[in-house]
Amino acid sequence: MRILLVEDERRLSAALVQLLKENHYAVDPAFDGETGLDLALTNSYDALILDIMLPRLSGLDILRQVRQENLTVPILLLTAKDTVEDRVTGLDTGADDYLIKPFANKELLARVRALTRRTGNLQATETLSVGPFALDLNARELKKGSEVLSLTAKEFQLMELFLRNHGKVLSKEIILDRVWGPDAEVIGNAVENYVHFLRKKIDESDGPSYIATVRGVGYVFQVERGR
User: Fold this and answer.
1) Is the per-residue pLDDT at 5 higher than 90?
2) Model confidence, pTM
3) Which CATH architecture has domain 2-118?
């Protein structure tokens, strides 16, 4: 399952991303309201976790605009404010749940499980299928046709990012942020190296790569190229 986390406190964000990933959630972090809203409206998520106090656009503003677009994705609000008025405002605006900071990790995970259970997604098997590829996010398995391809953890995350964004150009900065995390200390040509490793596993030996290099920008995954 895929979660959008919009939290401007970077240490807390990094800790929550790690917690959620350790519990088998894919997480897209954002650190301001405008970026969070853009991600929420252009991607498909199983749940949104929004801090209320954000730069550029508040969590409540994101919530309002998501609901105005008739998106029914479950939304959990995070806030340091613990008043009845704040809780009522959040819930009346369209939030599904409300969590007061500081909170225990177990409580956050329980709230996320409850949100996804309400939409019937808790036990759903999520498979990303693009062209000949099928990526099972629960079994952590990639198939190309009937062949199972063995991937390392980072290769799997990279493949998931490409499949979710096939046909879109992804900059190296976006890849680093989504696969390694915003605060990761990455040495050298990590992105280039892992793209090379992934290509060797998914491409045909006598054809162009599914992953095209966009000079000076990054990469784009195109199913048509590999055929």
Assistant:
1) yes
2) 0.57
3) 3-Layer(aba) Sandwich (3.40)
